[in-house]
């Protein structure tokens, strides 16, 4: 029996959040990570041991000010991504503290909104704040 790539239990929660977004899909290009995309553009990655320290992470795109605040405000949990930090990506270390699922849901939704086509991004923004009509 072959083990499914990215079979970590935490990935199931991350996938549930990501795949609940309009037209989002999951891809597994290698057994080292899983990508979540909308219209061919990645908005999140689940990474197995991206820094060689045995910790797993989830990477996502953030607005420049938000990325800086996360990296400076909680450097134990948030790290610069190896190749994508110059484009506003941040990595949340999943092994240093319990996952705050509501926080992660908000971070992944914002990442989605930053890369999704305007119409789809608007659907998520409207769903996030039902009073904003």
Present the secondary structure layout.
Elements: H1 9-19, E1 24-30, E2 33-38, E3 41-47, E4 57-61, H2 64-73, E5 78-80, E6 89-93, H3 101-115, H4 118-128
Antiparallel strand pairs: 1-2, 2-3, 3-4, 4-6, 5-6
Helix pairs in contact: 1-3, 3-4
* SSE string, helices as H and strands as E: HEEEEHEEHH
Name the structural class.
alpha+beta
CATH topology: Aspartate Aminotransferase, domain 1
Count of β-strands: 6
Number of domains: 1
How much of the residues is beta strand, in percent? 15-25%
Biggest pleated sheet = 6 strands, antiparallel
User: How far do the termini sit from each other?
Assistant: 51 Å
Rg over CA atoms: 14 Å
The CATH architecture name reads Alpha-Beta Complex
The DSSP helix count reads: 4
Order of strands across the main sheet: 1-2-3-4-6-5
- What is the overall shape? globular
CATH class: Alpha Beta
Report the uncertain regions.
1-6, 129-133
In helices, the fraction of residues equals 25-40%
- Average pLDDT works out at 85
Quick take:
It contains four helices and six strands. With 133 residues, it is an alpha+beta fold.
């Amino acid at each position: 029996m072959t083990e499914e790539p990215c079979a970590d239990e935490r990935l199931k929660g991350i996938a549930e959040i990501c795949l609940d977004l309009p037209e989002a899909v999951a891809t597994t290009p290698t057994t080292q990570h899983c990508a979540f995309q909308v219209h061919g553009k990645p908005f999140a990655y689940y990474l197995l041991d991206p820094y060689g320290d045995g910790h797993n992470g989830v990477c996502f795109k953030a607005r420049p000010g938000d990325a800086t605040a996360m990296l400076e405000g909680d450097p134990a949990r948030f790290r610069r991504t190896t190749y994508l930090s110059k484009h506003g990506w941040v990595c949340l270390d999943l092994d240093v503290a319990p996952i705050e699922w509501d926080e992660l849901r908000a971070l992944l939704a914002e990442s989605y909104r930053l890369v999704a086509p305007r119409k789809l991004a608007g659907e998520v923004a409207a769903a996030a704040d039902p009073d904003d009509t």
